Amino acid sequence: MTMESDNLITQEFNLNMGPYHPSTHGVFRAVLTLDGEVIVRQKNVLGYLHRGMEKIAESKTYNQFIPYTARLDYLASALNNMGYVQTVEKLAAIEVPERAEHLRVIVAELQRIASHLLMVGSTANDMGAMTAIVYYMTLREKVLDLLEMITGARLTNNYMRIGGVIDDLPDEFYDKFKELRKFLPERLDMVNTLIVGNEIFASRLKGIGVITAEMALDYGVTGPNLRAAGVDFDLRKKDPCSVYDRFDFEVPVLKNGDAFDRFLIRGLEMRQSLRIVEQAVEALPEGPIMAKVPRQLKPPAGEVFHKIEGARGVLAFHLVSDGGPKPYRLHIHGPSFVNIEIMPAISPGLMLQDFLAAFATIDVDMGEVDR
Amino acid sequence: MDFFVWLFELLAGNSTIKIIFVGLVYFACIAAFVTVLVIFLIWMERRVAASFQERIGPNKYGPQGLMQPVYDAVKMVAKGIITPKNVDKPVYNFAPMLIFVATLLVFAALPYGKGSLTVVNLNVGILYIIAVSSITTIALLMAGWGSNNKYTLIGGMRTIAMVISYEIPLAFSFLGIIMLAGSMNMTDIINAQQDVWFVFLQPLAFILFMISMMAELNRSPFDLPEAESELVAGYITEYPAMKFGLFYLAEFANVFSMSAIAVTVFFGGWQGPFLPSWLWFLIKTFLMVYVIMWIRWTLPRMRVDKMMKLNWQVLIPLSILNIFLTGIGIKLYQYFGGTGGA
Fold first, then answer.
1. Which of A195, A323, B4, B274 has its CA 20 to 30 A from that of A42?
2. pLDDT score recorded for residue A8
3. Could you give the residue ranges of the DSSP H alpha helices within chain A?
């Protein structure tokens, strides 16, 4: 196909970006139609990481499937665990002890911080700021240390159980957490002076890949991307699960919806998440960490839909039970899968470099997209 | 011993063979110097990057990890040399050689020290260096085009756009210096800086030179041609083993030669008290290399269009203004009784 601009005849060409590409964050494949370096069209090709999670769920008992949920969005595994166990609890009408609820919130918010840190780090790396990512990773390391201390694993932790959590906070946690409380805001401020205040970095992100509020709602975009577009929607406030309604925190909302705002909002959310963890640690009540749940869990026949605010948006589970020990059907609604669908709408007209900025700031996790 | 006697007689007798022989020895010396230098520079780059990034860097093999790049080089030489199926073979294979030769040619004309340490004292030294360093552009385009890969092609296109346009402010920033020194000879330029370094007389030219130098070197914030997060590895994506090694070698060697030029033109070259001249040259050059690495590990990558805009709308007008101001300055200086300038 040729097109004529002035007197120069140029030819469009297709570029397969991915599935193996350093900046597609996993196995995302984007088929780009380029005119020079400007994108004319873009198509998503998904499914390279499909593992059939929903089908696997049908052959596992309710408890056996918990570790699999950590592999959905492996960068925010605790949040996936939480969404799943709460769905089963809702179906089986299990009351979770207070202490366990607080522990869940602590782990989930630490996980959210870790996930956002990876996003800002990898975005900085994609923009060529190779020192900034290491600074973010040093910080993420400290968060992961805490998670490891509580859950025993750094990445795919398996901490939550149907009816509670597996273990209590270790004694060393309190000191380590005090360190993080001081270190996290300091470090975020420091990296902000390094890259966010940098003219080159800001010009790479400002006005790139704009998702307006209307567009975001049309495409069903949720999470920080929606809030960066100016819509005040956070399930932790709107429909609080667990004990989120007891904590005092703000939901940061920005208005431009461009890559720069999507980058900034992660930093703001991390600070709020830290506030929640602080309050949860202080308000930690005494008591058991596990409810009395039968070994062979057989929820009554019926179906239930449950949604929580994941690190990337609304994470929902739809569970159907036939009264047996295994789910009859489990449907997983991953926010990344919905968010990635906006890429073909925002990428035409962008340069190749800007495409990466837009894609990195939407922050998708391919494990969650393909399931 | 017979061999050496024969060689000596041969050299004493025939002047053409002698010239070729001396040339070969000289070439071997420079190639060896560059290789050792690059091995040191790679180590330095990794340690400097590590110190900026809260890491330690290579520290296991040899004192302070100095042997690490040597092991890496041995590994690279030992790897299989593959030629991908659909490449344009002559272009693809010639590109690494060309870039290496072009890099070495710059090294021939550098003023390493006083007197005979400046081995080739060309009377058009700066012109020669600008001309020769432009050859690397052709090699990069050949690599980008010959590899028959879309990523390398985009990398090659970006290189051409960037390096050619940034060569203009780079060359223009030298013009003020040439006007002040009244010569293009590197040694003359150094001698003209006996009283005051040109960086103080030509601060604008120095800033312009620094920016366009970063672009010429393809280093961050201008590392667009090999932007790994966008173009995998840019024009070197399809090169294996030592073919890749030659590109890598050329990149680091260019960092050194550009720093050496900066030192020669703006910081008085090998001049300095007490220490021998070659040591002053090395100290100043390595400080300059450190600054280049510092910039690389601090700044993010620029956008392609912003990069071109910066060049054509800011750097080139400023460099022309600089030439104009220098001319006025020299005339005023001569009018009030000073001597000097062209």
1. A195
2. 67
3. 53-58, 66-70, 77-92, 98-126, 130-151, 172-191, 199-205, 213-219, 224-228, 235-238, 259-282, 335-339, 343-346, 352-362, 366-370
CB-CB neighbours of B339 under 10 Å? 6
A61-370 CATH choice from 1.10.645.10, 3.90.380.10, 1.25.40.10, 3.40.1010.10 = 1.10.645.10
ipTM for the complex shown: 0.77
Mean pLDDT of A236-252: 84
The vertex-B53 CA angle with A17 and A73, nearest 5°, equals: 45
At B92, the amino acid letter reads Y
Residues of chain A in contact with residue B221, where contact means CB-CB under 8 angstroms, are: 128, 200
From residue B125, give the alpha-carbon distance in Å to each of B128, B170, B214: 5, 15, 21
Q: ω into residue A327 within 30 of 0, thus cis?
A: no
CA distance A157 to A371: 17
Look at residue B4 and tell me whether its pLDDT is greater than 70: no
DSSP-derived pairing of the beta strands A302-309 and A38-45: unpaired
Domain limit, last residue, from B33, B61, B77: B77
Record: contact B232-A21, CB cut-off 8 A: yes
DSSP secondary structure code for residue B338 in this structure: -
pTM for this prediction? 0.83
Q: pLDDT for A70-124, tens place per residue?
A: 888 888 889 999 999 999 988 888 888 888 889 999 999 999 999 999 999 888 8
**Which residue do the tokens 């946690």 mark?**
A173
Of A21, A134, A351, the CB nearest to B53: A134
